[in-house]
Design a protein that fits this description.
By secondary structure, the protein is an alpha+beta fold. The chain folds into 2 domains: 2-63, NADH-quinone oxidoreductase subunit E (Arc Repressor Mutant, subunit A, Orthogonal Bundle), CATH 1.10.10.1590; 75-156, Glutaredoxin (3-Layer(aba) Sandwich), CATH 3.40.30.10. It has 8 helices and 4 strands; from the N terminus they run H-H-H-H-H-E-H-H-E-E-E-H. The chain has helices at 2-5, 7-15, 24-35, 40-50, 54-63, 83-87, 90-101, 143-156; strands at residues 75-80, 114-119, 131-133, 136-138. A 4-stranded mixed sheet has the order 2-1-3-4, covered by helices on one side. Strand 3 (131-133) and strand 4 form a beta hairpin. The longest helix is centred in the C-terminal third of the chain and has 14 residues, at 143-156. It is elongated, with a radius of gyration of 18 Å. The protein starts with a helix and ends in a 20-residue tail after the last helix. Bound molecules: FE2/S2 (inorganic) cluster. FE2/S2 (inorganic) cluster binds at residues 80, 82-85, 121-125, 128, 130.
Amino acid sequence: MLLEKYKDEIEQIISRYPVRRSALLPLLNLAQREEGYVSETAMKEIARILRLTPPQVYEVVTFYTLLSLKPIGKFHVQVCRSLMCALVGSDTLLGWLQTRLGIRPGETTPDCLFTLSTVECLASCGTGPMMQINDDYYERLTEDKVDRILADLKRDGTSPLKSGPFMVPELKRAHG
Ligand code: FES
């Protein structure tokens, strides 16, 4: 149970917001990091914690592509297919990934390493075609770069070709 394991963290998250229900996305993110997806049990527990109904939680989970209702692979490969990326080759990128991974969008490789998804604009429109893998962005992609990224992830669990993450900006130190 989330509340048992992360009691202090959950209370700290809720305290950041004037309205309890505003903590919904951070708690869903916590649940997904814990289990690899957002289970029905977790949704019910979060609903109870935030005094929401389970359908209110469910509709948020199904709205955001970064949240999943079923177990996903260790690396969640999310390819942007919106207009600006489509104009510079997201279809070719997606086809290359499908060939290399042997799966289609919505599927996971048999070794549970990679899940492939297509998503809408990730706000990196000037550096397409691009994809997000877990919390990291990979931009200006080519077939060669994709091959290197997949090999890096299989071998090291990370890749120096990433350009993110941008979800949690780091504080910049003042120079001088
Ligand atoms: S269109 Fe792909 S990041 Fe915006």
